[in-house]
Amino acid sequence: MSWDFILPVCLGDLVKSGAVNQYVVQDVLSVKQLPSHINTALRSQGPLCILEYFDTAYSVLQHCRTVDVAYHIVGLSVSLPTLLLSGSLSAVDRKQQLNAVKMSVFLLCKLTETLESDSYRETIVTAPSKGRKKDKVAGKGLLQWDSERETILQCLTQLLQLDIRTLWSLSLVEEEFVSCVTCCCYKLLENPTISHVKSKSTRDAIIHVLGIMVKKYNHMLGACVKVIQLLQHFEQLASVCAAAVASWSSEYGVKAIVGEIMREIGQKSSEELAREGSGVKAFSSFLSELSTLVPETMIPNISVLLTHLEGESPSLRVAVCEVLGEVLVRVLSGDKLDDSARASRDRFLDTLQEHIHDAHSHVRARVLQVYARIVNSKALPLCKYTEVMELTVGRLGDKSVHVCKSAIQLLAAFIAHNPYSCKLSSVDLTKPLEKEMAKLKEMRDSQKEQVPVAVITAADLWDAMKPELEMTVKAQLEPGSEEEDNEDEEETGGDEERSDRDTALQIAQFLRESPEQVTPEAVSSDAPPTPQKEGGGNEGGESELKKQEMLVQYLKDTESFALQVERSIAVINNMLYWKTTTVVQEAVQFCVTAFEFSVANSVCGVRKMLPLVWSTDVTIKDSVIQAYRRLYLNPHGDNTRAKAQTLVDNLSDLMIDASLGTVQCLEEIVSEFFSSESALQTSVVQVLWERFSGKRETKALHRRAAVLLLGMAREVVLSNLDTLCSVALGEKVAEDYLLARDTLITIANITDHVRVCVHILCMNCQFGDANDSCVEEELGLVGASAEDTEVEFIRKICETELLSGNMLSAFLPLLVKVCSSPGKYSHSQLTTAACLALSQYMMISPAVCKDNIRLLFTVLEKSPLPVVRANTIVALGDLTVRFPNILEPWTPNLYARLSDESASVRLTAIMVLTQLVLKDVMKVKGQVSEVAVLLLDPEPHIASLALNFFNELSAKDNAIYNLLPDIISRLSDPERGMKEEDFNTIMKQLFSYITKERQTESLVEKLCQRFRTAKTERQWADLAVSLSLLSVCERGFKKLQECWDCYSDKLTEPGVYQPLLSIAAKLRRRAKPQFKAQVEDYEKRLTAVHTKGLENVDNEEREQQMGDTQSQNLQTPRKSRSRPKPAITFSSDEEEEDDAVMAESETPKVTTPIARTRRTRLRH
């Protein structure tokens, strides 16, 4: 064989003549000739048949889009022979096998690339084919290729695993061969479905082939470049590339490829990343995935990624932080780290800690999540707990909801995996800490009081003897005379060495002649024995002191940790009523975790989340119910009796000092438990009866809690009603009147159904003799009329008989006199009781209500007692429900109490008005601005109720939208004198409820129109700020431009100019190119009017328009039938004045023609 097969760059190069001895395709067969030639090639046997029939295979490749898929499969089956290589090959045989290998691999790879492109093209074609037969054929071919793709990869793997490098001279495989195989694999990776689960086998086969190429065929640098390119163009390949690189690193031992790719990503500048767009997300996902697979391999090169922490890409900062987190959890954790690893761990933790305050909210949230993983894995050193905990508590006030949610999750992880104690109560830790600190002080004082014993050590003895010893040695070693000394100096250098040796011998002689042997044992034996014993005692005391210091430090850290947890509870409890469902869920879970670890005040959060069982959000409701089941209804114990005892104790503690609302909410949860039939439920009922009946010694509070809990199991109480009455209402009723009261409440709650049943039975008895055919009809008609008659009868009794001519009527004048004479009757309890009694009288009769309504409002406004004012508000709320028409004119007086000086009165007022407004008893009017002011109330509970009011009101269609203009007008009134910061805060909250585009557009117009009626600069600024708080879109911006005349004369004020400029800036950031130009023109116009004034800008525009008109007049006019531009002349005297003529641009857009107006008047 005299020719060589050169792998071409493109398919067409094989038919062109090239270098000497280069193989060239001689005959490209047509489609019709292919079947016969393929059959001839099939009859030929042997692995080297490709050398003879390459032109036929090349023709199949050339016509692959027109040849049937069966030919493709045939070509695949014969294109790659299994070449068994032997060690002793002649040059001719090696050349033949090399050409056969290159031909087979080339055909296989090119055919694979072509078929892969065709299959992908078929999947994205949306137009249906003409005829069902073509669809079936195309689908069949696609399925065939899906099944053959993996077979081809297996063939390539088998070939590449053989030592085919010996076929090349010096075992140097040519780059074209490597490129041919790898390009085919990368082409297969570009398939959009390669990352799906169904493609796992194909994906693994591709990674395996590329791994062989990287390890055996020097493809590492090429693989690095190609991975970067794939990530830049195919974002979905991030996980696939990460798995491939991890496989090459771990399974094939090419660890250097991880560092090379990390360096490539680390060296990219911010400008390059900004241009790539989707590539940045792919890089981030790739790094995150890779860190989960080979974190230890990334450590040596992790420094090249740290530069991106200072870059502008938030996603890359997140990725680097996640890489650090995985390294800390998987590699740099545990107590067996060396000094270098410990230093790296601390450096990485400090880096993460810095980015808790990152500028981007997504980064802050992800860093907190990384820390949560570290804490859950117990990889955070104890010395870092306090710092990270403090930073996390600070993130609870973050403006981003996602950051707050992540902070709550991290705090819950801190509590659940804390290394200090299973009970984190600072109150319980105070006494032990004080006790141990006192003990430490005593130990330190006792150590100071001990008189140190003088102990002469060997070093001290030597220092004392040294001067005399030196003098003695010098005297003994001193030469006899100076002459002898001079003679010694004249001797050769060897004499100096000899003199040193003689000196050493003399010293040794002196030591031998010494009466005392100077040995370590002799020196140590000189020390007196008693001081040594005392010294040993001191060492033991020092070790005890160190242990005590460590114990005190541990208790201090525990107390500090508990205090930070308690500080976070106060913040998280307020998050239970946020609008964001996920935050509420995390807050509920945190309260549960804190309660389980006995954190102080954690029960407050548990109680505060209880009303959420009435939430309209099913997710929140289920979270609260599951939380209470976990805390109270799934107790721990050795047996059923112990579990029941624990459950009752928990519920009783919750019932003590609980409000009526808390009891009602708890009933919703507990009643569901009692409805289930279980051994635990039976034991709980038994324990409750034992507590209530006093069979076991129980506190009075727990007995009352037991009867209230029994009331939640109606069926149980109904069957034991006699026992309930005999215990609580029997002879011992005087011992505990509160128990009797709670028992009556329980009986009243469970007898509603009984009363209804009795009423139904009576009705059935009354109409029992009626005809069977008319029973249902008679019951319906008579029942309805009887109900109306009964209501009318009750109303008549209330109005005419209850308060006239009986004992009750005699008290009414007295009540009126006490309430109307506060100076004479000044006792607080008397005044309180009189006002409550008068309000009850007014509830009965509308006539009494009309006569005394003014008196009651006078008491509300002028009473010096907050409790009287608060009670009066509650009474007036009930009267509003009872007689809405009578109370309607007094609505402003009710809203006025929202600004009462007493916090309790404001609290009562907001609660009453919330109920009246949300239940549609009272219409929402402009006075609701007083509720908006309470958003900034110094009392957090009042502020939260005001926030809840607007949250609920926003659920009503257009309620807040309709009220906003009036609220703005009232709050910006100069007489109110509200601070600018307070106004901005309130408006920011209210405008957050405006989410519809039409509402925004309408509000833009309304607020712009109010500029005309606003009189002060502060009112202008408030209106401008309100406009800037709206999410203005393109339609809203057009309205803003149309209303230019409303606010253009006020743009010289910075308070008006800056907010409007911020609107344009926000629009420009997200605007399309055409709309962006309009926004920029608007910005220029705003700036021009602000700097020069409206009149100067208008004059410049007018002059420019006049100049344009004159330039147009210089042109040759065309003949046109259109009428000339209108000019309005006011009088004949002004015809010669330029200002008397208005240009078309100055003419008002909306005009009223004079002639038409006159005709209209004549018609009238």
TrEMBL record:
Residues 480-494, 1132-1141 have a biased composition (Acidic residues). It comes from the Eukaryota. GO terms for biological process: cell division; meiotic chromosome condensation; mitotic chromosome condensation. Keywords: Cell cycle, Cell division, Chromosome, Cytoplasm, DNA condensation, Mitosis, Nucleus, Phosphoprotein. Its main location: nucleus. GO terms for molecular function: histone binding. It is found in: Chromosome; Cytoplasm; Nucleus. Residues 83-223 form the Condensin complex subunit 1 N-terminal domain. Pfam families: Cnd1 (PF12717), Cnd1_N (PF12922). Residues 867-1027 form the Condensin complex subunit 1 C-terminal domain. Residues 1106-1117 have a biased composition (Polar residues). GO terms for cellular component: condensed chromosome, centromeric region; condensin complex; cytoplasm; nucleus. Residues 476-502, 514-544, 1090-1164 are annotated as: Disordered. InterPro entries: ARM-like, ARM-type_fold, CND1/NCAPD3, Cnd1_C, Condensin_cplx_su1, Condensin_cplx_su1_N. Belongs to the CND1 (condensin subunit 1) family. Regulatory subunit of the condensin complex, a complex required for conversion of interphase chromatin into mitotic-like condense chromosomes. The condensin complex probably introduces positive supercoils into relaxed DNA in the presence of type I topoisomerases and converts nicked DNA into positive knotted forms in the presence of type II topoisomerases. PANTHER family: CONDENSIN (PTHR14222), CONDENSIN COMPLEX SUBUNIT 1 (PTHR14222:SF2). This is Condensin complex subunit 1. It comes from Cyprinus carpio.
